[in-house]
Write a structure and sequence with these properties.
Elements: E1 11-14, H1 22-29, E2 33-38, H2 42-45, H3 48-58, E3 62-66, H4 75-88, E4 92-97, H5 99-113, H6 120-123, E5 135-139, E6 151-156, E7 163-168, E8 176-179, H7 189-207, H8 217-239, H9 244-257, H10 277-289, H11 293-298, H12 301-308, H13 313-324, H14 330-347, H15 354-357, H16 364-374, H17 390-400
Parallel strand pairs: 1-8, 2-3, 2-4, 4-5, 5-8
Antiparallel strand pairs: 6-7
Length: about 400
């Protein structure tokens, strides 16, 4: 087992109606000025924001809010919200939404804490996050796991080509997160399916590495159990979004999938080991074409897996045996597991080819454009299982077409 340091400071409040306790929770922490960040109209129409506002007011807590955060959050909108938050001078940033809203709240947190630094500099690796306003979250979409992760993603549409990238810091950790599965009951089925896929990838991208077989057996057991769980309950949630048991399992799997627990002791001291190529390949498409994050990865995963599995065929076979219960020689089991995973994506209503992801012809020029974005103009490689350069990316995208 590799050495590691594990730190998870986020306090979880899970269950029906827990969002109504937000005033009490903030009071216990000593927060008195709460700035709420939310997404679209659903939080308003559902009455969620009204319930949150009442709970805060009843606890004597002053609040302000800003909305309009969209999927694949853009840095320009985040800068606008930072200006509003700075005027209010909060002691807590409260995200009400999914991963995009939480990531925006995190960015607002260190934008308010250091107003003299352009927050994009943290993502462009020109500055280091040294402090932040505390973050809390009320989760309404189970997918990204941002409520318990140390990661944060933003997209910069003001540069050419646009880039979607992330930054990791302990300052990205939420102080607390409220998880009520009932808040996800009204989500579109496609969004539930894409979220379930994203949950799978947060564990799979940690699981598929070159040296994982010398890693942590306990972490493997957790990772494989989580993948089995989301494979079981993801399609149930898509079929019936008001199934409390299914949506509870999906929501908790989302949180566990991205809090580093499933990657401990493999190939990184702080647990963030893994390959992450599917995420990078997908983010390039999201930056250029604003496609849904989870769906961008389901469209390319089989092509990536078949291209890279020879780097650690034993790992893919272990996945096939322990997650899908297949038997046989390593290559046969690995290929069967890849095909089964593709079939599972389809059961979620997700694309498994680029031709299904996009509503236009995916030409060679389009593929080269996406690969160039992913490789930053052929200036970087991605991946750990198999290190991929731009030529490799073109092959994977082509095989996924």
């Amino acid at each position: 087992m590799r050495d590691f340091v594990y730190y998870t400071p986020t306090r979880i409040f899970f269950g029906r109606g827990r969002e109504n306790e937000i005033g009490k929770i903030c009071d216990e922490y000593g927060y008195s000025r709460v700035f709420i960040v939310y997404g679209g109209q659903s939080a308003i129409k559902s009455g969620l924001l009204d319930r949150i506002a009442k709970s805060l007011t009843d606890a004597g807590i002053v609040y302000d809010m800003a909305g309009g955060v969209k999927a694949n959050p853009v840095i320009s909108k985040t800068r606008e919200i930072i200006k509003l938050a700075n005027i209010f001078n909060p002691d807590l940033i409260l995200a009400v939404g999914g991963g995009s809203v939480i990531d925006t709240a995190k960015t607002v947190g260190y934008g308010v804490a250091r107003p003299g630094v352009d927050v994009w500099d943290y993502f462009a690796k020109k500055a280091t996050i040294t402090k932040s306003i505390p973050i809390g979250a009320i989760l309404t979409i189970a997918a990204a796991g941002s409520e318990m992760s140390d990661s944060c993603v933003q997209t910069n549409m003001e540069i050419d080509p646009p880039i979607k990238c992330g930054t990791n810091s302990e300052f990205n950790r939420c102080k607390f997160a409220i998880l009520n599965p009932e808040l996800t009951f009204t989500l579109p089925k496609y969004q539930i399916g894409s979220g379930a896929a994203d949950i799978f990838f947060h564990t799979a991208d940690r699981y598929f590495t070159t040296d994982a077989l010398t890693g942590n057996h306990m972490s493997d057991e957790i990772a494989e159990g989580l993948m089995r769980n989301i494979i079981k309950y993801g399609p149930v949630g898509v079929e019936n979004p008001t199934d409390y048991e299914a949506m509870s399992e999906i929501m908790w799997s989302s949180t566990i999938s991205h809090n580093d627990l499933t990657g401990l002791g493999t190939n990184a001291e702080r647990g963030r080991g893994g390959d992450w190529s599917p995420h990078q390949l997908g983010q390039a498409m999201s930056a250029l074409y604003d496609v849904t994050h989870g769906s961008s990865m389901t469209a390319i995963w089989a092509a990536w897996a078949k291209y890279c599995m020879d780097a650690n065929i034993e790992r893919f076979a272990q996945y096939g045996r322990n997650v899908w219960d297949y038997s046989g020689d390593d290559e046969t089991v690995a290929l069967e597991a890849i095909e089964a995973t593709d079939d599972w994506f389809r059961s979620l209503g997700q694309p498994t080819r680029l031709s299904e992801l996009f509503d236009f012809d995916v030409t060679d020029d389009v593929i080269r454009e996406i690969a160039s974005n992913c490789s930053r103009g052929n200036t970087r490689t991605i991946g750990q299982l198999k290190v991929l350069n731009e030529a490799d990316m073109i092959k994977i995208y082509t095989n996924a077409r």
